[in-house]
Every structure is written in structure tokens, then in C-alpha cells.
Amino acid sequence: MVNSPLGSNTLGSLVPSRPAPDSIARRRRAGLAGIVLILALAAPRGAAAAPERPAPQWIGPRDMTDVLAAGKIRSFSRMLARMQVATANQNAFDVTYYDLDLHPNPANSVLTATVRTRASVVAGPVSTLELDFDNTNMTVDAVTCAGGPASFTHASNLLTIALDRPYLTGEMVDVTVAYHGTPLTGGFGDAFTFQTHNGTPLITSLSEPFDARLWWPCKDDPADKADSADIRVSLPSGMVTAGNGVLVESSDNGTTAFRHWKCRHPIATYLVSIASFAYSLVPDTYLPAVGPAMPLQFYLFPESVPTAGVVNQKVKSMIAAYATRYGEYPFLDEKYGEAQFLWGGGMENQTCTSLGVFNETTVAHELAHQWFGDNVTCRDFHHVWLNEGFATYSEALWAECSRATWARARSTCRS
Ligand SMILES: [Zn+2]
């Protein structure tokens, strides 16, 4: 993830990205610093010599990487304060599969959906199954277990489902939850949002680190990746949904636009994502050292196609550069994609990064997360520095590989 500062949006004239919360906080702090400086200058003379202070530092491009890093640290510090660890019940099962069937309604901003969860019991017997799910804005309509109706309670952001019988270690539990609601705003400002862009509906998600539970019931713990997932989305005609994995079905009958994405690699809940808009799809291909070409799919606002294309045409070279150093792209049998959204940064959703800025550094950073964060995932978010550390290192690695950007990168590095 990259949380960009104001002014870094290379599509600024085209995309009205909202300032990230960190940027606002930074400006407020800058204002307070100015007040403190004025008070210091007004202090009476003749007082004892104050301890020597370092000269004020000019904050410019040379320090921008520090500003970005500080923004991430502040953001994740806030998130960690909200972290809820897995319950004892959740530690007794291992999720193997999620099936999301989403029906977002842009007209009233209500998400109506069903989510099926299959899990293997690892410490039975268990008679209930607990899923993380917001109970402030989201209402559970019905639950089934093994195909039959099941009773449940929904409180303290935990959905507790009574199973049809005790399940022993090694047995599979199969539950489906039907629900609806308008999801709460997440920690980064976008969990599952209904917006418009140029008057057209735009629906996007951003679930890192603990916001998947705001829009779908799940075991919201990066230590337990599902082995696979299906994501089905039904929306009004004309909307195009980008998602994780491979597109296996797409239709638009003039009333409803339906898309089914199939993810067959292990995936953490915070990396499950959709982005829906009247996107323009720009295709490209990456040719690996061995095997067939892999599709690249860039879902863009139509007016952004020319500008974003300047950097996106380099993505296949970025993948090749990382592949020679980190190993081949980890989702070679699926794809790499991007979906444009209005958040002022990027989020490395698995095989389909959500992007609000299209500068080369951000694109290279988010791509690197496919190796570090998505394929290899930290057990909990106390270790997220590993994700961000490798992705930030990869920015410099790409700069080194790309002669066109090397001189600029060198001029902004610390001496
Ligand atoms: Zn990152």
C-alpha cells in the first residue's frame, strides 16, 4: 500500500483524488508548528541561553520518502489500535474457501449479498462457528449450515453460527450468510464505497488491514488464507467489475451486468477486492521466461487511458525485472491488473491493484506487493513492515533497472 501526499497525483487534472487523512493531519500539525515558532520568537530577551537547537529542516522532494513512510506508520498505528485477534473458536478451524455473491445497488448505496464459507475443523469438536462481521451497519438476514437453516447471534462485530451438529477434527463445515447494509467507512477511508465519478457510479473496496469485516463476513485474519475464492458481482448494465484472479464469466443483458472472478491461489481476506465502473479496459501481455504469455488488464477511467498508459506500458518490464530477482510472478496462471479508484494512493489487492495515482514509483511499489504481501503474507499486521519494506526497496530496484528513471531517483535519494 502507498498513501500518497497531496500533489503527487500525476492525473491531478483529471482525477479529483481526495486528500488522504494523513495529509490533512500533516497540514494541521504544520499549522501548529507555525504557531509554536511565532511564540518562541516573541519570548523576552536576556533569559538564560537556551540549549542549542538544530536548524529547521526544509521539507522537499529529498525527504518525500520519509514523509510517505511516516504516513504509513501513523496509519497502521491507528489500525493496530483496532486490531481484534482471532477468537478461540476461530483458531479451531481453517478456512478453505469463500464464495462472495455481491449485489451492490448504486441507487441507494446498499450492498445485498451472500457469502459461503467452507472451513476444516482443526481442533474439534466445535458446535459453533464465529465470523468477523460489523453489526453496526450490516444486518444478517439468514444463515444456513450444510444446506439447512441455522440460528445465529450477531453482536460485538462477531457473527456466531450454531452448527447443525458437533464437528470433529478434520471435518468440513459449510455455512452461507445472507445479509445487507451500507458498509461503514474503513480505517483508510474506503472499505466498500459507493461513489460517483463524472456522474457515473463507482464502487470500490479497500480492506487493509481489518476492514473486510465491514462488508463481508469472514475470518478476518491474515494468518488464515482461504485456498481459493469466487467473487460474483451483479450491477446495473454498463458497469464493469474488476476483481481477483481470472474472469470466468461476463454478461450484460441490458439490465444487469454480471461478472464472476475466480481466484485459485491462497488469498487473505484483506486482499479480496472489487472495483466497478464504466471502465475502459486496456489489455497488454507479459511474456515470462518459460510458458505462455500472461494477460495484463488495466481498468481505467476513459479519460485517464492516455496518461496512465505512459507508465502502464512499463509494467511488463517491471514484472520481468522483479521476476529475475524474486522468482517468477507468483500468479502467472491468473493475471496482473489495475483498477482505478479515487483514493489518493494504491492498494495491492491480489492480482488487481487498486490505484488512484499512476506515477512510476507507486505502480512499481504496488506491483512488488504481489510477491511481498500477497503471495507471502505476514501472519499479523505487526509485521507489515516486511510488506512495506520489500515494496519500498523494490521502488529503488526498479529505478535502478530503468535507466530512464535512475538519474531522477538518485537525485532524490539521501546522500
Ligand atoms: Zn505498500
UniProtKB/TrEMBL annotation:
Residues 1-20 are annotated as: Disordered. Residues 359-407 form the Peptidase M1 membrane alanine aminopeptidase domain. InterPro entries: Aminopeptidase_N-like_N, Aminopeptidase_N-like_N_sf, Peptidase_M1, Peptidase_M1_aminopeptidases, Peptidase_M1_dom, Peptidase_M4/M1_CTD_sf. One of its GO terms (molecular function) is peptide binding. It catalyses: Release of an N-terminal amino acid, Xaa-|-Yaa- from a peptide, amide or arylamide. Xaa is preferably Ala, but may be most amino acids including Pro (slow action). When a terminal hydrophobic residue is followed by a prolyl residue, the two may be released as an intact Xaa-Pro dipeptide. Gene3D superfamilies: Neutral Protease Domain 2, tricorn interacting facor f3 domain. Keywords: Aminopeptidase, Hydrolase, Metal-binding, Metalloprotease, Protease, Zinc. Belongs to the peptidase M1 family. This is Aminopeptidase N.
